[in-house]
Automatic annotation (TrEMBL):
Signal peptide: none annotated. SUPFAM superfamilies: EF-hand (SSF47473), Spectrin repeat (SSF46966). This is Actinin alpha 3. It comes from the Eukaryota. Pfam families: EF-hand_7, EFhand_Ca_insen, Spectrin. Residues 307-342, 343-378 form the EF-hand domain.
Length: 448
């Protein structure tokens, strides 16, 4: 427009020059010409003034839009990171957590408190960001600028920022409530842990102590079997009376399971450990009582003295290296050798079939007692036979065929004569027989 206006400047000047020339020529209607020329010049000047005002107005509006555009850009620059922060904050505030201790929930509370401490600064950032938008609106209202309502630099609107900020403020107290509820739950869990541990740390060692005491009673050779039985019965009654403590621990364990407590740093004993130990204790006391009862029956049935039983027990205990009431085959072999047995592999295998008929690989004390009782009884019988032959032989170390036929029934005499070997020694008549080796062989070999 200004270019077009400038193009007409020469024409206005030409009109003024023509009017001037007419005046110089004393044109008869110069007044009319001058008036007309003055009107044209005044209109031209007014048009120039209006043009300048229009330019000034447009330049002012342009600067306002530049300012608004800069504010739009500044809003976008600040709104984007603030919006991302709010998205992250909302995600964290709604994050589900699983904790198993007071320390873990306290760590979450500390982190939440640190987050809440940043809210005032975040609110300042929100106010500053919204202040930019308010400045845009103020400029538009002041200068009558109609805004399109769309920020060309971001899809985020001031309402988006406001809504998310309100959501963050709403979630903060909810998170506080969740954390405090979890604190109360973990405190309750900790009480259950300590309550269980306080009992388990007593019951566990008590079971172990009783196991050791029962083992000591079972190997004690100081008293009689009846005294051992009395002590064991007393232990059994004490164990039965202690069952209420196990039941109470089971109750606490059930509460822990219902509260989803699966670890306890206050004790090394779990309910499974205690149950296994308790069952072992019941089994051990029952087995030990049964063993002592069998020993009493064996002693009474076979006429073994208490001293012999004590000797057997001492030998067994000495070679029971694991102290578990059982001997390994190697320990049993060493025990037999120490007692004077001359064992080959075949003979030892035969003995093992007697003491370990089920092939368990161990020799119990009861099996050891049965074997030693049988061996002792056989030894005693052999001695008795030797003593009988010695009487028949009139205290001689050999016996003659005539003496056997005179003193024994024909069948027994023939049996002995056919089985006895010739006596090897001085002072014996021809045909004398060795009744000592015969008596030993009679109870030492299965084919006799």
């Amino acid at each position: 427009f200004e270019s077009d206006l400038a193009a007409h400047q020469d024409r206005v000047e030409q009109i003024a020059a023509i009017a001037q020339e007419l005046n110089e020529l004393d044109y008869h209607d110069a007044v009319t010409i001058n008036a007309r020329c003055q009107g044209i010049c005044d209109q031209w000047d007014n048009l120039g003034t209006l043009t300048q005002k229009r330019r000034d107005s447009l330049e002012r509006v342009e600067k306002l839009w530049e300012t608004i555009d800069q504010l739009y850009l500044e809003f976008a620059k600040r709104a984007a990171p603030f919006n991302n922060w709010m998205d992250g904050a909302m995600e964290d505030l709604q994050d589900m957590f699983i904790v198993h201790s007071i320390e873990e929930i306290q760590s979450l509370i500390t982190a939440h408190d640190q987050f809440k401490a940043t809210l005032p600064e975040a609110d300042k950032e929100r106010v500053a960001t919204m202040g930019i938008q308010n400045e845009i609106v103020k400029i538009a209202q002041t200068y009558g600028i109609k805004l399109s309502g769309v920020n060309p630099y971001t899809n985020l609107s001031p309402q988006d920022i406001t809504d998310k900020w309100d959501a963050v403020k709403h979630l903060v107290p909810l998170r506080d409530q969740m954390l405090q509820e979890e604190v109360a739950r973990q405190q309750s869990n900790e009480r259950l842990r300590r309550q269980f541990a306080a009992q388990a740390n007593i019951i566990g060692p008590w079971i172990q102590t009783k196991m050791e005491e029962i083992s000591h009673v079972s190997v004690d050779i100081a008293g009689s079997l009846e005294e051992q039985m009395s002590n064991l019965k007393q232990y059994e009654q004490n164990i039965i009376n202690y069952k209420c403590n196990i039941d109470k621990l089971e109750g606490d364990h059930q509460l822990s399971q219902e509260s989803l407590i699966f670890d306890n740093k206050h004790t090394n004993y779990t309910m499974e450990h205690v149950r296994v130990g308790w069952e072992q204790l019941l089994t051990t006391i029952a087995r030990t009582i049964n063993e002592v009862e069998n020993q009493i029956l064996t002693r009474d049935a076979k006429g073994i003295s208490q001293e012999q039983l004590n000797e057997f027990r001492a030998s067994f205990n000495h070679f029971d290296r694991k102290r578990n009431g059982m001997m390994d085959p190697d320990d049993f072999r060493a025990c037999l050798i120490s007692m004077g047995y001359d064992l080959g592999e075949v003979e030892f295998a035969r003995i093992m079939t007697l003491v370990d008929s089920n092939n368990t690989g161990v020799v119990t004390f009861q099996a050891f007692i049965d074997f030693m009782t049988r061996e002792t009884a056989e030894t005693d019988t052999a001695d008795q036979v030797m003593a009988s032959f010695k009487i028949l032989a009139s205290d001689k170390t050999y016996i003659t065929v005539e003496e056997l036929r005179r003193e024994l029934p024909p069948e027994q005499a023939d049996y002995c004569i056919s089985r006895m070997t010739s006596y090897i020694g001085s002072g014996a008549p021809p045909g004398a027989l060795d009744y000592i080796s015969f008596s030993s062989a009679l109870y030492g070999e299965s084919d006799l």
